[in-house]
Amino acid sequence: MVKYASFLGCQIPMRIPSIEIASKKVFEKIGLEAVDLQGYSCCPEPVISRLLDKTAWLATSARNLVLAEELGLDLMTLCNGCYETLLEANEILKHEPEERQRVNDILKTYGREYKGLVNVKHAVEVLYEDVGPEKIKEHVTKPMKIRVAMHYGCHLYREPNGGDITRKPNMMKELTELTGVEIVDYGLERLCCGYPSMQADEEFSLKQRLLPKLKNIKEAGADAVVLTCPACTIQFEIGQILLREHGIHYNIPCINLMELLALSFGIPSKDLHLEFHKGPTSQLAEKIEGDVNA
Amino acid sequence: MTGKEREIVECMRRELGSDLIDAKTPRERRVFLRIKPTALRKAVNALKKNYSTLRFMTISAVDHGLDFEFLHHFHVDGAVVTLRSVKPKEDNTLESITDIIPAANFIEREITDLFGVKIPNHPKPGNLILTKDWPDDKRPLRKPLEGALPPQARPVAEALISTSCVAPISRYMERKREEAGLPKTSSFAFTNEKDMKEFHGIMKDTSLSKKVGFDWKKKKLRYR
Fold first, then answer.
1. Chain B contact set for A282 (CB, 8 A)
2. How many angstroms away from the CA of A220 is the closest CA of chain B?
3. How does pLDDT run across B151-202, given as a tens digit for each residue?
4. CA nearest B180 in A: which residue?
5. Could you report the per-residue pLDDT of A45-76, keeping only the tens digit for each?
6. Which residue in chain A is spatially nearest to B192 when comparing CA positions?
7. B165-180 exposure pattern, b = at least 16 Cβ within 10 A, e = fewer
8. Is the Cβ pair A17, B208 closer than 8 Å?
9. What strands lie across the sheet with A120-122, from one edge to the other?
């Protein structure tokens, strides 16, 4: 059985727990054992902490990595932001001995040491590489007859050592296709959703980043947006609400890849508690279920 | 470092003990002594006692947003010696050295004028370059009490440092999680005293909390 330490991060359990529920159900179905880390902290978020204090950023990441190392497991993240932080911190800690020593000097006060034995993977990679599309397809009992637009999220393109940056987005696209959906191209897949710039300039973030995407997605005729990143999901959902204050009305549902897989596995939407979303995701799921059962 | 700078540093180290935080001599005839703000008068007295040729130059005040930095510059036997002390802006005071060095009188009053810093033990307080009716809350060189973070980023930094999580959970969400068959919260550091102590230890061992202006007593940022 494939086994990983699961890093849920902050946004999934605290803002969109339906992703946590869906992922547990999907992992159980496909035989992936995900052990929740005990006593973990924010990854930490990659903007403020990393820009202001690299040592604090590295030491906090290292502590989270140690928690997985103590379990003897590699680390799997469901959130793109956590993935980038932990992946990049891990690369530094593994390949820059002086940095690791500096961080370990801090951690030893608390009886911990990071030896550099952990690998960090996004759940998309784990599903694709460790479980495999064929095995996942075996569990698809209710193919989704909807058109979706993909939003991969900037951090999913992160690849260490000059690797192919489209590797994980391509995996995500293939996994999404397994659920039976039709993926529509809208031309702005690579554009950031605007979540990070919300902290600096809300209007720019909404009108110059999110809005062009929403326009193209609607014009492409998508019924929903498929994402893996909870922060991007929050930006899409809350952003559509905030745009109403500017007289701009969109109501496009967002669905996480884990939720989409769970629905295609035949797990009823009411068991996923999609009402945690701030957009019409529940309504989308009910419509899909109605169409599938019709 | 030549013999003179070394001698000054050693002398002040002897006189100030742990009140001397750091000493730097970046170039010839230049000495920076970072001292605890409470030891300002002690340091000035020590310079006066040990160096008969001591000449007071001036005081520079710098408003860093969250803190004031005061730089007391002296000329000592051909070298410029600066006593550097940093005080939180909430304190808003500077100890006068005018009774030790009378030449500091005007510059201390100028600092009060331009920054609004109070100098409680000044022998002749009062406006120097501003008019008598100048409003207290409109000091020409005083910045607002603010750290490096833009307003939207402040709640994120505060939540991260105080709770170990950038999206603190509400009672409502705890209840909704339980209704959905999940535990109240996931196994965050804040659910366990030992883990939280460790996380806060890391925050204190590094300088993030200081850079963002986190008040550990109040468990929140010093500004909004």
1. none
2. 33
3. 888 999 999 999 999 998 899 999 999 999 999 999 999 999 999 999 999 9
4. A273
5. 877 888 889 999 999 999 999 999 999 999 99
6. A39
7. bbbbbeeebeeebeeb
8. no
9. A32-36, A2-7, A75-77, A120-122
